[in-house]
Each structure stands twice: as C-alpha cells, then as structure tokens.
Amino acid sequence: MSAILPPATGGSAAPTDPAIDTGGGTGLWKDAFLRLRRNPQAIVGAIIIGLFLLVAILAPVLAPFGGNELPGRTEITPTTIPGPGEIGGYPLGLDRFGGDLLSKLIWGAQASLLIGVVSTALGLAGGMLLGVLAGGFGGWVDSVIMRFVDILLSVPNLLLAVSIAAILGQSPYAIMIAIGVSQIPIFARLLRSSMLSQRGSDYILAAQTLGLSRGTITMSHLLPNSMGPVIVQATLTLATAVIDAAALSFLGLGGGLPQAAEWGRMLTYAQVELSIAPQLAFLPGACIAITALGFTLLGESLREALDPKTRQK
Fold first, then answer.
1. Who's near 48: CB < 8 A, 6+ residues apart?
2. Cβ contacts of residue 102 below 8 Å, gap of 6+?
3. pTM to 2 decimals?
C-alpha cells in the first residue's frame, strides 16, 4: 500500500508580476493600465500631457501678465525686439506688440486645450451617433450613412476644416466646429467597424435568445464593448486637433485680436521678425510639437495595450 505523501511545501514561489491576477484574471482596462505603467513611451506621453494640462489650468496663476496685456509696448522699436533676458521682468522677452512672450505661451496652452477638447468632443459625439446608427441597425441605414461618411472622407481633413471655418466666419467657435466636423467620419467608421465585429459574439447571441430588443442590445451591450478603439482614437485625435487649431489660426481663421495669446496666431505674426527674433516662431512651434507628441505617445501606447495580439504576449 503506497503512502500518501503530504503536499509539497517547497518549490517556486507564486508569480509576482503585477499583470498576473491570481484571484481570477484581470479586466481589459486594468490589464491595459498595468501595461501602460511599464511602458516608457506611455510614461513620457503622460508626463507631457500632465504638464500641458497643469499649465493650461493654472494659467491665471502662472502667467505674469494677461493674455492680451501689452506691458512692454514702449520697449519695442521697428528694428529691435527684446529677446530672452534682455529686459528685467520678461524672462523670454517680448513680441512685436509688446506682450510678454512667457505669458503668451502659458495662455496659449489654455486656448489650445479648450479648442482641442471641445472640437474632439464634437467630433466624437457626431461620429458616435452615426456609428451607432450604422452599426446597430445595418441594412439601408448603414449604406446611406456610410456613403455620406465616404463623401466626407474623400476631402482631406485640413481642407475640410478650412472650408467649414471660412463659411462660419473668423472666430474660435468656428475653429472648434470646423475641426469637430472634420473628425466625425473618423469616429463614425471606427465605431461602426468595432460594432460589426462584436455583433456575432456569444454575448450578443445570448441577448437575442433572451428576447431583448435591438435598441437594448445595441445601447446596453454592443456599444459599451465597442468603445475601446474609439477612446484610443480620441486620444490620438487630440494631437491632431491641437495641430489643426494652430494651422487654422496661422491662416487667419481664428479671429480675435492680433495680440491674443494663441500659438498658431503667434506663429503668424512671428514671420516678419524671423531674422531679428527667431524665438517668436521657435517657442510657439516647439509648444505645439511637444504637446502633439505627448498625446501621440500616450495614444499609441494605449492602442498597443488594448490590442488583443499584444495582450497575449
């Protein structure tokens, strides 16, 4: 008769990898968050975005002067614009109007954040409406909506935004609407594609077997499980929105006062002084590039973290 051996107490210890949940597995978003924490690219993007948000929100506290204030107007001559450190009280110098360049950059972050968030929200709302109708109903509804979306996609994104902004007039609200409308087809096609890929899933078939209506299945089950790619795209689109907003302002479609603090407008008026004050173009351009880089790095990292192929590695 063989002896009953006691369970072994030695051997390797339980895995300590935070991505391994010994209590039954991790959820999609929790697993994605754990992957982002170990991704240097995501950390750099998050730091850039965090600093951008901090500067934009605390602009009234951080900026020495108001966005449209011209404290150094008397220091400007036709051939001389004081640069960084040349005049006390203005660390980065002045612009052609006599405004403090540091204050303009700080207030410009707030303007870019407002335009980027509002325009992306408009594009996301419109795209989700069309995507839900097309992906949830299918048939002729899907065909009509997708043909309309194809027409919008046939026009380059920036050209469509310029056309809409020119029709609506020169104002920050026109820029928000123009950028938002140009983003609608991107979100619509992405959400429709995600919903179509989910329609044959087991949980959808089970809901249909239980007799749930199409609207209930679409809004309570299909839509929530199709939002992952859309959220990732919204993060990436924020980078595009910041660049498009600067481009439209650079083209003179942003309206407002010439001395108003907005990065694209600052680039417009810096062209004349490139030879004597290159910092007037370099600094706003660097702010635009770094901010867009932050959103792009975080968005791409989030896309990789949510990709089923990479999650299995």
1. 290, 291, 293, 294, 297
2. 63, 64, 90, 91, 92
3. 0.77
Strand ranges inside the chain, DSSP E: none
Report d(CA 214, CA 158) in Å as an integer.
37
Q: Which of 61-70, 253-262, 301-310 has the highest mean pLDDT?
A: 61-70
Q: Which option is the CATH number for 38-72+103-311: 3.30.70.1350, 1.10.3720.10, 3.40.50.150, 3.40.50.2000?
A: 1.10.3720.10
d(CA 165, CA 265): 15
Six-digit token pair at 215? 């609207």
Domain boundaries, the chain: 38-72+103-311
Say if CB 177 and CB 162 are below 8 A apart. no
CA distance 260 to 103: 11
- Cβ atoms of residues 228 and 28 within 8 Å: yes
Q: Which amino acid is at 136?
A: G
Q: Of the candidates 179, 159, 67, which has an alpha carbon nearest to the alpha carbon of residue 118?
A: 179
Region 236-265 average pLDDT:
83
